[in-house]
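Hey, weird one. I pasted the TlpA family protein disulfide reductase sequence into the form twice and got a warning about non-standard characters only the second time. First submission, copied straight from the form history:
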Amino acid sequence: MRKIICLITLALVFVSWNKKEVDYTLISGVITHKSSDWKIVSKDQSFSQTLKIDDQGKFSDTLRVSEGIYFLYDGKNFAKLYIENGAVIVVNADAADFNKTIKFSGKGSEATNYLAVKQQTEDKIMGDQKAFYSLEEAAFKAKSKEIKAGLETLLDGIKGISESYKTKEKRNINYSFLAKLDNYEKYHEYFAAKPSFKVSQGFLSELDGLSFENLEDFNFSEDYKKMIVSYHMKQAEKLSKSGSIAEDVAAIKSIGTISNVTIKNELLFSMAAVGITTTSDLKNYYKEFMDASSNDDNKKTVTQIYNKLLIVDKGQPSPKFVNYENNEGGKTSLADLKGKYVYIDVWATWCGPCMAELPFLKKMEEKYEGKNITFVSISADKASAHDKWKKMIIDKKLGGIQLMADKDFGSQFLKDYSIMAIPRFILLDPAGNIISSNAPRPAEEDKIVKLFTELGI
């Protein structure tokens, strides 16, 4: 009897082992002519694993990651791949001609190969993006439905994709269609050059009743995630107009109403981790985040950022910069500028949004010439771009005081202001105290004129 019980126990253990889900993915292959390390990187860059590739280009590794889209990346070339537990993916490529030679095979590679063909299919049907979003409403919606139908047909014809993936991907294709409709108003306004364009009543009827609380779709579909953000940004715009509250603070308040805790906390943190460094209402922004979030780690991280930002909040003495190179010759320090209001533009020659602000900044400088304000532009370019910086000042006839930071983004002045993205505009009073560490941009003419008028400039 004891022997039989032991055999039954062993059998149950064996069955349990066989039923246990595999919690990893195997990836191997050959990448020849590599010039740098190859990594597997998640879309949000929270995960990164360097592949151990030998001198012959061979590698074999184990990945323990959440199911989803990742990137095979070497700093120059990249390929999108879909990873799910139990997959055994084989990669072959020549890094010297990566795009033409990359091949994926093995168990679970079907979804990765589908993603490549999917992009090609969508691009072919859509055509030029400008022409696509310039279509009038009926034609645009018809073309968007054609893209959706083409992708669904493609997906149905792919062999070997798991039913789980196919089910979620069909919903994702629909979210992609809905996202195009949701984006149409702002894209059509831009590409068709129709200022203040608004879609007709009923154009977005397909979005009626759409739930924004589906965690599985949130984790799987980027378009679904973007639509949730879009919805809450629209809610924030309404709340801001009706409640005399800053729009970025209203966005945190709106996202805080999401009932799914995981979705709410992830969106709150992804928005606040950067948003808190650019808000014009630091204390209320922080309060709304702390009231809405229930993730202690996220709250701790944002609190650390908040405490650092308090030193550059309104009314605080501005951090100093000392002996920055002046394009006109010599060195300039912040202390040299006391006695007037100081409007600082932190920019760089490589920054597209910075370039877009320059015509508006020049217009501002002309409008307030001779007034009690000094305009200062601080370049965050690397030292290697010094000549490019000087040439751009001449070519674009840039005015004001043109300075170059001493260590680009590593400059202490930029660090003190927690500047992680540019352009960034700062306004100081004549005593060198902060009026706004994230002042309105020159392109926001109404806001900046209102602010300057209130200050008596």
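That's the output from the first submission. The warning seems to come from a hidden character in my clipboard, not from the data itself. The CA atoms of residues 175 and 224 lie 6 Å apart.
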